Amino acid sequence: MGIMSRVLGPVWSAGREGFGGRWKRTGRAPGTALGTALGRGPGTTPGRARAPGLLLAFAAALLPVLGACESLSDLGPAGGDEPVPVDELPRELSEEEVEVVRGSADFGLQLLERLAERAPEETHFVSPFSASMALGMTLMGAGGTTFNAMASTLGLSGLSEEEIGQAYRALLELLEELDPAVSLQVANAVWHGAEFTADPDFRARVEEEFGGTVEGLDFSDEEEAARRINDWVADATEGRIEELVTLPLPPGLVAYLTNAVHFQAGWTEPFDPEETREAPFHLPDGSRVPVRLMARTGEMPVAVEPSYKAVELPYGGGAFSMTVVVPREGEELRDVLSDLAGGGWSHLVESLEEGRVRVYLPRFQVEWDGVLNEALEDLGMGEAFTPAADFGRMLQGANPWIDEVKQKTFLRVDEEGTEAAGATSVAMIQSMPPTVRADRPFLLALRERHSGTLLFAGVVVEAPEDPED
């Protein structure tokens, strides 16, 4: 897969199967607090967490959130001004924030693992950060065993509702302000049926702790309701995610809980387009497909392990990064992912050390969408998808359950940097009276109910004529 060179150091190539299972995380995990959660990078100072480790640990495998730049060249070094290095967090993380960071990281890798197990021949690009935010809002309306199961799945067991909400809020504020050279934006919203009223405590948590909005919609006007939500998603993701909500809407729909994220940043050290060459990408079945491979040589955090090699590519001032993990020859991507999802991620983070590296990485674009229900059920959230769920603290006069958790993502990687977007919707339904709509051929009968006498019977096949007044 690669050779060792005294001149260039390790040669890294993402041109083989291993590149398909990449996660976006901020690399080294720093400081005492975050180091305990994700592993401590060399040279960190106790009590002061370096930014890279926190950020995409919380944003776990994705690359999120808002951005208002016309192109990647508007950010980072390509934008003209040298970015200000972000070497540490502006404050130490609280114990609750550390737990949310660690839990979100575990949740993200386990979610990716479950999805990859179901379709191992396909590319998957998910936003655990977006899913965690949407499900975190949903958690605020849950109670009893439903709350406990969801908290466990999201890696938040042991934290109270108040601690979870406060940690989400603090981390969101930290993420969006950390690196001026990175465009990062998060948006949350709850859309409930106009006939319902949001529980005051639930509304307060969504607005204050998730920075979200709560809005009533007329779901009987399906096209308008879907358009309203989809316009919001498109606006929050700079047009990268469209039609998150599709028609027809689920029967018995009472609410959608949505999150949207958009990330845009230039590499700290861009790739030179003159070094981009066509090269084969090796598929799992042994076939090869030509791709455009970028190349760069420089000092970067690297890790060399028996089953894989990893390199970290920073953005902007260095608070955010992409970590590329390539299995060694003869190793399976699924085995590497299983190891990382089972606790090996912290070991990878701890193993990253600065070194001179030659990196090869494809230019590419990915659009992915999928339903997360089965993966979430496998992770312990099964009760939330049944009528036995307790979401009685969400809407007054309703006790719904989750019908579907859906996600759509976008990723573009080129010589200048990266743009990524993700959106997640949680559809809440409840039992509704059956609907009988005679707008197609039907049968009718006139009868006396007590004796059972059938007076008239017929089938209406032709379009019925309106009776004269």
Task: Please describe the structure with a list of short key phrases separated by commas or semicolons.
469 residues, alpha+beta, Antithrombin, Chain I, domain 2, 6-stranded mixed beta sheet
Write up this protein.
The structure is a single chain. The protein is α+β, with helices and mostly antiparallel strands and 469 residues long. The protein has a single domain, classed as Antithrombin, subunit I, domain 2 (Antithrombin, Chain I, domain 2, 2-Layer Sandwich), CATH 3.30.497. The protein is 28% helix and 29% strand. The chain is built from ten helices and 16 strands. Strands 1, 6, 7, 8, 9 and 10 form a six-stranded mixed β-sheet that branches. Strands 4-2-5-14-13-11 form a six-stranded mixed β-sheet, with helices on both faces. Strand 15 and strand 16 form a beta hairpin. Helix 1 (32-38) runs parallel beside helix 3 and helix 3 packs antiparallel against helix 9. The chain is elongated and about 90 Å long. The N and C termini lie far apart (84 Å).
Give the beta-strand count. 16
> Based on the structure given, which CATH architecture is correct?
2-Layer Sandwich
At the third CATH level, what is the topology name?
Antithrombin, Chain I, domain 2
Q: What proportion of the residues is helical, as a percent range? A: 25-40%
Rg value: 25 Å
Whole-number tally of structural domains? 1
Sheet of most strands: 6 strands, mixed
Shape: elongated
CATH class: Alpha Beta
- Regions with pLDDT < 50 over 5+ consecutive residues? 1-13, 15-79
Number of helices: 10
Mean pLDDT score: 84
